[in-house]
Amino acid sequence: MMNENLAGRCGHYCGACSIYRACEDGGELLKVMEASCPSDRSLYCRGCQAVDKNCWPYNHCRRRECLDAKGFDFCYECDEFEEGGCEEWKRLAEDHAKIGMDLRENLLFIKSEGIEKWLEIQDKKWRCPSCGKPISEEEKCYQCGGQLRQGSH
Predict the structure, then answer these.
(1) Judging by beta carbons within 10 Å of its beta carbon (0-12, 13-18, 19+), is residue 120 exposed, middle or buried?
(2) Would you tell me how many other CB atoms lie within 10 Å of the CB of residue 90?
(3) What are residue 125's phi and psi, to 5 degrees?
(4) Alpha carbons 9 and 37: distance in angstroms, whole number
């Protein structure tokens, strides 16, 4: 059974999140992410479905705040999604498109096929072609050092 906590409410695959991967895998990526963590927070994440007040991203996710206020689990439940999404979600979707993650497609798949099937596909997609270990949205695999993409996102 896949970890349903990795199904981001906005369509993001948390298994490829740099913060989540750093917490799970440790090593060099953990050091990189700890350096960017606000001094009043601890680097801690178990995935967007398990977010709590101890999680570093908790206090800066506007989509989570919006969904909680509306009583929704995912952005696709909102009327604005059908109309193209809210401005906050659109900005996020544009940024994720640069790393090969289509948030709209992801949400529509989750809605029609379910979380479990989507997570299986994402788990296979977000693996290093060199070593086969899970990767983040970074340009390199922090497990083997292999280059994943050119340029920055």
Answers:
(1) exposed
(2) 14
(3) -65, -40
(4) 22
Q: How far apart are CA 58 and CA 55, in angstroms?
A: 5
The mean pLDDT value for 97-112 works out to 95
Q: What share of the chain is helix, strand, coil (3-state, %, to 5)?
A: 55, 5, 45
For 82, the token pair is 């059908």
pLDDT of residue 36: 85
- Phi/psi-derived region of residue 138, left when phi > 0, alpha when psi is between -120 and 50, beta in every other case: beta
The fraction of the chain above a pLDDT of 70, given in percent, is 95
User: What is the pTM (predicted TM-score) of this model?
Assistant: 0.88
CB atoms within 10 A of CB 152: 8
Q: What is the pLDDT of residue 153?
A: 39
What's the CA gap between 92 and 115, in Å, rounded?
Answer: 20
Q: Give the pair of three-digit tokens for residue 134.
A: 């899970």
Please check the confidence at residue 2 and state whether its pLDDT lies above 90: no
Residues 6+ apart with CB under 8 A from 71: none
